[in-house]
Write a structure and sequence with these properties.
By secondary structure, the chain is an alpha/beta fold. 42% of the residues lie in helices and 15% in strands. It is built from eight helices and seven strands, in the order E-H-E-H-E-H-E-H-H-E-H-E-H-H-E. It has a seven-stranded parallel β-sheet, sandwiched between helices.
Length: 234
């Protein structure tokens, strides 16, 4: 059974992807930062092994890779999901904040790709979870949007670099995704609904189902794309 590593998988989109891939027979290694309890609960559901990683530390990716491969063997599928979003209004110090976001949201994806790729063969996949903010950012998210735009660019470049070896690199750029544990205020919900073609928010499960397709053989000719998943955002 091949191994899939998912970063940031203790809750939200990462947890939904883990459940979806476990249901399809993937052997899983999952990372968490603070929510050990959530990660342990998910591991009991999916049979995954969990690993602690705080990617604000530049050495975390290398330590994680060593721990995972020593315990479970080489990684066949890598899902880079770490990179939480938050507002970053223009203010003194925003440059440093942007660099911190790059460290968490971009650097680990590149480092883990570089560490895992040598043991990957044809049919392996790297999937980067981005954001619609990387393409169509609203006000007050410039640093976060820049980190996701950088991840999108890296996705396209890595697809070209690894494609000759049969390794696919894709991305998903979710739009408004609603989580039960982080509901939006009603006025914000109404404003978002007014800009989407479909009269609902997306869910983590929507992202997970697309992720499961992209890492499967059914998407075997799809690489170098960051697919928007946003309900027809206008």
């Amino acid at each position: 059974m091949t191994l899939t590593l998912i970063t940031g998988a203790s809750n939200g989109i990462g947890a939904a992807i883990a459940r979806e891939l476990a249901a399809q027979g993937h052997s899983l290694a999952l990372t968490y930062r603070d929510d050990r309890q959530g990660a342990e609960h998910l591991a009991s559901e999916t049979g995954a092994q969990i690993f602690h990683a705080d990617f604000a530390d530049p050495g975390a990716a290398a330590r994680l890779h060593a721990e995972v491969t020593q315990a479970l063997g080489p990684v066949h599928t890598l899902v880079n999901n770490v990179g939480p979003g938050r507002a970053t209004p223009l203010s003194p110090g925003i440059g440093a904040e942007a660099m911190q976001m790059m460290q968490v949201g971009l650097a680990p994806a590149l480092d883990l790709s570089a560490l895992c790729a040598p043991d990957m063969g044809a049919g392996s996949v790297i999937l980067n979870i981005s954001s619609l903010n990387g393409r169509l950012p609203p006000a007050r998210v410039s640093a976060f949007a820049a980190s996701k735009a950088a991840l999108d660019a890296a996705t396209l470049a890595l697809a070209q670099e690894l494609g000759p070896r049969g390794i696919r690199v894709c991305g998903i750029a979710p739009g408004p995704i609603e989580r039960d544990d982080a509901p939006r205020p009603d006025d914000i919900r109404d404003k978002i609904r007014s800009r989407t073609a479909l009269p609902r928010f997306g869910t983590p499960q929507d992202v997970a189902q697309l992720a499961a397709f992209l890492v499967s053989d059914r998407a075997g000719f799809l690489t170098g794309e960051v697919i928007g998943l946003h309900g027809g955002w206008q």
